[in-house]
């Protein structure tokens, strides 16, 4: 009986020691958005002084709300680029950016382009034009890998058929 009590106290002490460790539950990848800005060559160069990324559930952005900052979720800008990281993005977005020339420009409404979205933002005289950058390379890579797998698989099947046909006893 004394051994059971000793084992129970030992187990209880060990569980207390190991339960005090910090658990990190939010360590997976999160969706991102990268914005690269291009300016009209004839205009004087401007830099970003402040910016807001609005998220919308409605296609017309009538319910626009700024991306809330919390934890790793945030929207940050440098003089000629911006980046957003979130736990999940709404389907539609809009940018509102104040530039060094004193003007505040708003963008068109744009949709989330993917998990790691990349956008080109054209700075125009009165507004911003946001366009998603489409990348064909990942799709092409997937198609090529699929074709390669099919080729290897069919070659293996043909090899097995020839192997078993040759091993079959001849009558």
Strands, helices and their partners?
Elements: H1 2-19, E1 32-39, E2 48-56, E3 65-66, E4 74-78, E5 81-85, E6 92-99, E7 104-106, E8 110-111, E9 116-123, E10 128-132, H2 137-167
Parallel strand pairs: 1-9
Antiparallel strand pairs: 1-5, 2-3, 2-6, 4-5, 6-7, 6-8, 9-10
Could you characterize the architecture of this molecule?
By secondary structure, the chain is of the alpha+beta class. It has 2 helices and 10 strands, in the order H-E-E-E-E-E-E-E-E-E-E-H. It has helices at residues 2-19, 137-167; strands at 32-39, 48-56, 65-66, 74-78, 81-85, 92-99, 104-106, 110-111, 116-123, 128-132. The strands form 2 sheets. It has a 5-stranded mixed sheet with strand order 4-5-1-9-10, with no helix packed on it. Strands 2, 3, 6, 7 and 8 form a 5-stranded antiparallel sheet that branches. Strand 2 (48-56) and strand 3 form a beta hairpin. It starts with a helix and ends with a helix. The model has no long low-confidence stretch (mean pLDDT 84).
């Amino acid at each position: 009986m004394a051994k059971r009590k000793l084992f129970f106290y030992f187990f209880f002490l060990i569980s207390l020691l190991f339960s005090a460790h910090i658990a990190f539950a939010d360590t997976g990848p999160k969706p991102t958005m990268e914005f690269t800005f291009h300016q009209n060559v004839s205009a004087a160069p401007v830099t970003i002084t402040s910016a807001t990324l609005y998220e919308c559930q409605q296609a017309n952005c009538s319910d626009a709300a700024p991306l809330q900052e919390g934890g790793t979720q945030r929207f940050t800008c440098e003089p000629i680029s911006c980046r957003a990281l979130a736990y999940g993005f709404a389907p539609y977005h809009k940018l509102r950016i104040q530039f060094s020339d004193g003007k505040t420009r708003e963008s068109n409404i744009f949709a989330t382009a993917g998990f790691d979205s990349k956008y080109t933002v054209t700075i125009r005289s009165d507004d911003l034009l946001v366009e998603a950058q489409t990348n064909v390379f990942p799709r092409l890579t997937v198609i090529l890998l699929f074709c390669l797998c099919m080729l290897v698989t069919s070659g293996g099947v043909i090899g097995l058929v020839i192997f078993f046909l040759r091993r079959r006893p001849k009558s």
